Amino acid sequence: MVNQNRVNLMPSAAGYTPDQRATRDASLVVANGGADYEEMALQNQLFTAATASAALAVVNSTAPTFTLYNPIGSGVNLVVMRVAAMLTAAPGAATVISLNTAIQLGPVVTFTLNTAVSGFIGSSVGPKGQCFATATLITAPVIRKIIGGVVAVGSVTPGIFDVDLNGALCLGPGVAMTLGASAAASVAASITWKEVAV
Questions:
Q1: Within 10 A of 134 (CB to CB), how many other CB atoms are there?
Q2: Residue pLDDT, tens place only, 85-119
Q3: 176: exposed, middle or buried (C-beta count within 10 Å: 0-12, 13-18, 19+)?
């Protein structure tokens, strides 16, 4: 069988098997079939949780205020796609905001939940991962990634940190990831993750 590449746009319909498309210099044309997160959202694999107010704990605190947790026995890995945080008040000192992780040696049993929703708005499918507004962790987290910070007392510039991790951090069952700060900081925050079967 000979592979054929066709130059210019091709009509298509459901069930149609098109030829591969090429440019006039015979280069193969490759293009996204939709928006970056579209397929994940439509397949109910993408979830988001947010808070309007969190007083961030220090990096290695076992009592964090914004945490993504993959419960032991969940059957999924959490692929962290995007994290955003915005200072809601000027901090009293220069501060660094970071993502921190900790393997929990047992289930986290003391917590309050943030609401997490599917990226497919209106879907009744909920996540296996949990986002905590507050929690008591068994193991203290350690710093994994800096996402922003301010260098002057009383500064809120830059006001928002929006980091597209695109799967650079993945949480297996029993792993918690916290949003923390090197000095007291109040933020609004959100996190988006994909769930993939183990």
A1: 17
A2: 998 888 888 889 999 999 998 999 899 999 999 99
A3: buried
